[in-house]
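Hey L., structure's done. Input below.
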Amino acid sequence: MSFRPGGYGGEDIWVCRRQSPEDSWGPAVNLGPKVNTSACESGISISADGLELYFGDKSVIGNPTRPGGHGGGDIWVTQRANRDDEWAVPVNLGPTINSSSIETYANISADGLSLYFSSGDIFVATRATKDDDWGTPVNVGIPPNTSSWEGFPYISADGRVLFFYSNRSGGYGGMDIYMSMRPTVSDAWGPAVNLGPKINTQYYDIAPGLSADGCTFHFTQNDATGWSGNFKIYRTTISPVVDLNGDGIVDATDMCIVVDHWGENYTLCDVGPTPLGDGVVDVQDLIVLAEHLFEEFPPVESVEVDEDDDGGQVELELGQILVVTLESNPSTGYRWEQAENQESILEQLGEAEFKSSETSDPPTVGAGS
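Output:
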């Protein structure tokens, strides 16, 4: 979607093409008057087979919605028989999906059977086959939804990771990108995690997207407050974290950590077949570690606190480990607690690991991340 000159009056849909993933993108081409109008066409999602294109008509800059809708913003779809055909005239998804409220930012799953979208909260509608109508939308629940706005949902190819933006408290700017995970597509969504300051800024960071192999992440970012300024598309790579114990090298110790959690949904060790894992620690994770065996990495930075910090708050950056020194045996009942308004910053992954102090002093050390 772009406001650039040469369009049809509103936010239009454009397309760039390239010969292969290694080539540069070609020039942007407007999809033309069958799809674009003087109203708004934005928040697009194309099906994996390239035959369905979903979009919304809710404008962020005040352009009108398309005629024939149901409310403040609707979701539409245009189709084509094959990739070489032109797109057909868009069709409104109808009152099952659209309402008198705002429905926007649709995202179609890789199998074409789930449609995620935003109406303040994130909703999902499903269908049995691609030839069936969409069923009644269902709120995906809390988490990842909050009382704040959640928009631009993007579901990973395996259906286990949900990216979205939100203006909830605890972020870095006006709109931040978050992610929520679940072990399988039948499970509830886990807590939403802020992607951190490498992705999010003081401005608007929106429109997340993930490649099918889970290795390339796309998003849009502006350079001014609110919906003003210039929005540009960015991409970054995602690499698996393979130095599991943070000692600077991938070795047998890391392999043992994987084996210790075999068959579990343990995020630290779930690094294959894609960098975000598959919901279970198994041979796929050993394969990824084996590909990096004996590679050296910078040591993980630790943040150290002790009992003097009781009642305080600790903010960790992505990749840091929290080390807590305790003056008595942890079996007496120490607990990790997470402040509600800091859920986007600190999430404990698994149980805390307790080990004896390496000094002659009596304290024991608990290390968790």
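The chain has two helices and 21 strands. Confidence is low (pLDDT under 50) at residues 338-369.

-- N.
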